From TrEMBL:
It is found in: Cell membrane; Membrane. The keyword Transmembrane applies. Belongs to the 4-toluene sulfonate uptake permease (TSUP) (TC 2.A.102) family. InterPro entries: TM_pro_TauE-like, TSUP/Inactive_protease-like. This is Probable membrane transporter protein. Its main location: membrane. The keyword Endoplasmic reticulum does not apply. It is a multi-pass membrane protein. The chain crosses the membrane at residues 7-37, 43-62, 74-93, 113-133, 145-172, 213-233, 245-262. Keywords: Cell membrane, Membrane, Transmembrane, Transmembrane helix.
Length: 264
């Protein structure tokens, strides 16, 4: 094992540790670790990330469900349009994008750069959602028509498929608004959706990418190990301040990614 691979596994452990400590957000670091630290192509990195996110979210789902903090029925209902969009985006949309998205004079925006820039903007949103002070829960929401939810699922699922991250920061507000779930239960239920979306979406890549299963499984197992340890440590650490601090880090990483990709 060389130094780069060792650093990659340390990164996988940190991703899991963050997920275990604050319950979300850590998976958005998986793609940058795979691309910038381990040198994977963004297309492969987003595919691998879906597997890592899906397998680690499965562990979180079991933990939340045992504590009564995950609504299986609502999670499955919301999953259908989402996993459909994730699978189709990985199977057809991402492979179907042209190698050069557009060209202005001598500048070319390639598919790989475009995906990473888009990923960076999604990271900005994720970081902002962790930094901002959340208001007290409002429990008087009315359930919206299911076709609204279907559209939401398609949009969020497509974003998830392109960037290879869980999208919990998008699913949780949708579950609070649509299903009238309290915040803690919305977080647990979002893990059900993320697990299904990510693992089914990953199958869309099996047709187009050669998978290094040995690396992928070992990376995922180290991430899961970090989740289990982080879950135990979370009882002793203030999640609120930790989440805000990590949000600033994600925000800074997003700016770095956008700058790096657009100034190459």
């Amino acid at each position: 094992m060389d130094v780069t691979q060792l650093l990659g596994y340390i990164g996988a452990f940190i991703v899991g540790l963050v997920l275990g400590l604050i319950g979300g957000g850590g998976s958005i670091l998986t793609v940058p670790i795979l691309v910038y630290l381990l040198g994977y192509n963004p297309i492969v990195a987003t595919a691998y990330s879906l597997f890592v996110v899906g397998s680690s979210s499965l562990v979180g789902t079991v933990q939340k469900y045992r504590k009564g903090l995950a609504d299986l029925k609502i999670g499955l209902a919301f999953s259908f349009p989402s996993f459909l969009a994730v699978y189709l985006s990985r199977r057809f949309l991402v492979p179907g994008l042209p190698d050069v998205l557009f060209k202005i004079n001598d500048y070319e925006l390639t598919k790989e750069i475009g995906i990473m820039v888009f990923f960076g903007f999604v990271m900005l949103l994720a970081g902002f959602s962790m930094i901002k002070n959340k208001k007290k829960e409002v429990i008087t929401y009315k359930k919206q028509p299911y076709y609204y939810t279907f559209i939401q699922g398609i949009v969020i699922g497509t974003i998830t498929g392109i960037i290879g991250a869980g999208g919990g920061f998008l699913y949780v507000p949708a579950l609070v608004l649509w299903a009238n779930l309290p915040m803690k239960k919305a977080v647990g239920t979002s893990l059900i959706i993320i697990t299904i979306n990510s693992l089914i979406g990953f199958t869309g890549d099996l047709h187009t990418i050669d998978i290094d299963w040995m690396f992928l499984i070992s990376f995922s197992l180290i991430t899961i190990m970090g989740i289990l340890i982080g879950g135990r440590l979370s009882k002793r650490i203030s999640n609120k301040s930790l989440k805000k601090g990590f949000g600033y880090f994600v925000f800074a990483m997003a700016i770095y990614i956008i700058y790096k990709e657009l100034t190459l």
